[in-house]
Amino acid sequence: MKKFGIVALLALVVMSFSSLPAGYKVGDKATDFKLKSVDGKMYSMADYKDAKGFIVVFTCNHCPFAVKYEDRIVALAKKYKSLGYELIAINPNDPAAQPEDSFDLMKVRAKEKGFTFPYLFDEGQKIYPQYGATKTPHVFLLDKSLTVKYIGAIDDNVDDAAAVKERYLENAIAALEKNQEANPSMTKAIGCSIKVKK
Amino acid sequence: MRYFCFTLLLLFGFSSNAQEVTTFKKYDELEKYLEENKSQPLVVNFWATWCAPCIKELPYFEQLHNQNKAVKVITVSLDFEKDFETKLKTFLKKKKYTFITTFLAAKDYNNWISKVDEDWSGSIPATLIINGDKRVFVESDFSSFEELNNHVNKSINQ
Where does the signal peptide begin and end (chain A) (predicted)? Predict the structure, then answer.
């Protein structure tokens, strides 16, 4: 009985830890992934041997907040590719909970908007919880060793790209280029909750 | 004449009151408003017309407003400013909700999200319960009125 009590206590401790909000903080090492993109191929960060870093953007088709950032994401991908950074978009939503975010509709959207970067489907929703993404859009900047350098928003103005004052993500990349810590290294913005079937 | 006035009041006073939206340009204005209304426990729901799970749970907040007299329900719309008339007002008019409806226009999210709750990442729906100096925050949706009501009662009786 005493043994059972200890086991039960241990189980409780483990359970209470696992219910803590998981996810990365700046400085943590991020996991790589192998996910299918809209071109039908599988992508991993390990495929990019020469990349100086990665801009991992959790985004999706349906969220109006994410949609407002689409053109900016396309522009960032082009601009930073030439500097050696790869932008990788991941749709974390379960299409069973949000049909607009199905793999087929991801293909349509990528074509419409002329995505020049992988737009991956988080099949089985295994990757976004490890990163601790909670919403779309949600950005993680990683250096070449996959250490998290910045988490949060792209900039400080969802409504108007022309009226942006703080380019959080670009500032964080500039800091990384200079081997400095991003400041701020974490920002918050409103977004759509990640859709999980109940 | 008195009856006439009364009828007018009934017609316009009550009906317009139901869809009145108090606008806050800055987050501090909302915080002040909540502070002023704190004489009873507050249930503050952050939502937007573009957020499907938010719209799904609003009827539970309406039911809470009608049935749980221990609390005051205040909804805070985070809609885009250009959608204020076309989407937000239209939606509220159609739904005829009677809880308090407010609109927070402040777009400097990074400056105020943590003031609502340190752990809020910014996804909506999100609900804050204020009971005196105690605050209970949830960054997810409720799947039924019972779930919401139980959560509210548990939070204010802690």
Answer: 1-21
